[in-house]
Amino acid sequence: MSDFNTETERTMSLAEKAEEILARRADSLARESAEEEVTDRISLLLFRIGEEWYAVRVSEVREIFQEYRMTSVPCVPDYIQGVVNVRGEILSITDPAKLMKLGFIELEGEVRPPAIVIIKGDVATALVVDEIGDIAEVASEDIEPPVSIIDRAQAEFISGSVHVGEAMVGLINTERMLEPVVTGGRS
């Protein structure tokens, strides 16, 4: 009879230990899930220039438009394509491809390329791009330093890089992109 009691105690203690282990594991999983939710996330607007994908923080985007009438302005740097009137506000049209020495975006023809109005403080410009992509949510810790193989002319306008799906996306340094607009082309 004493062997039976000893065996029952051992079985109960194994069952209790298993239950305790499972409870700790459940608690650990719950904490991991809560930590994942707390992670800072950043919304990025993806866009294409040539064959490459770039992004700006959604918080730095005021609007996107495609139908606009641009007026050319003489004696401005070649990356300023002209100006546009957006509900009474005159905005410069900036070609980031020319600014970053990636070529240029074709503005001639019936269909205008999309323009993304970026803003930092009280400075704004409309960046013309080849294509607007999706909005991607990324963890702030997933943003890496800019890829070291990019050209120096591009590197100063890229603040980081991040994988979105299978693509490596360059994160535009909005402050640096707006600097030539503020200084009138004097860097």
Low-confidence stretches: none
Q: CATH fold name of the largest domain, please?
A: OB fold (Dihydrolipoamide Acetyltransferase, E2P)
Structural class: alpha+beta
For the largest beta-sheet, the strand count, sense and barrel status come to: 6 strands, mixed
Beta strand count: 11
CATH top level label of the largest domain: Mainly Beta
Name the overall outline. elongated
What would you note in describing this structure?
By secondary structure, the protein is α+β, with helices and mostly antiparallel strands. It folds into two domains: 1-38; 41-183, CheA-289, Domain 4 (OB fold (Dihydrolipoamide Acetyltransferase, E2P), Beta Barrel). It is built from four helices and eleven strands. A six-stranded mixed sheet has the order 3-7-8-6-5-4, with helices on one face. Strands 9-1-2-11-10 form a five-stranded mixed sheet. The longest helix has 37 residues, at 2-38. The N and C termini lie far apart (92 Å).
